[in-house]
């Protein structure tokens, strides 16, 4: 995983137990089946075969056998393969391959609750709210509304509208809530954006009604 516009680190997982000299190895990284991302040709960086979008964006750490991909973007997501060939009696022989799956993460803004109506609230009327968060990646799992009063909290699931920016590929999400105005009791309403198991959740500032 790598944050958007940061450096992604892709490992070859090459133990080099034979302590082979770098000058006897050809190391190249490719994305999918066609795009050459980086090539070290018997100790020298080689740029002839690189896919244009990776030129000046990669660096290989030969001590750690790790490729640095600078300014990682959403288009860089996908599977990368590291292939190492050894120059053995003239003809190169593949001695190691490994694959690495890159996921990009962009932080969503803190969810924000907005009123969707004007005028004063009267009991038994409806309360219309929306909750929005923007500029994140990947697509979130769901949005939950939390309604708390005294010692109890109710979770309400509502439809989440998702839009994706055509250029940046980042997502904006909104959910709407329509409930009866609570009577004679202070109620806190929050909204929770679930980003997935490993990324956790974001919660809004609670709204007191």
Automatic annotation (TrEMBL):
Subcellular location: Cell membrane
UniProt record, GO biological process: cell surface receptor signaling pathway; cellular response to lipopolysaccharide; immune response; negative regulation of T cell proliferation; positive regulation of T cell proliferation; T cell costimulation
Signal peptide: none
Gene3D superfamilies, per database record: Immunoglobulins
GO cellular component, one term: external side of plasma membrane
Residue ranges constituting the Ig-like domain according to the UniProt record: 1-98, 111-191
SUPFAM superfamilies reported for this sequence: Immunoglobulin
Primary location class: membrane
Bilayer disposition of the protein: Single-pass type I membrane protein
Keywords: Cell membrane, Disulfide bond, Glycoprotein, Immunoglobulin domain, Membrane, Receptor, Signal, Transmembrane, Transmembrane helix
UniProt superkingdom: Eukaryota
PROSITE patterns for the chain: IG_LIKE
Protein's name in the database: CD86 protein
Provenance organism: Sagittarius serpentarius
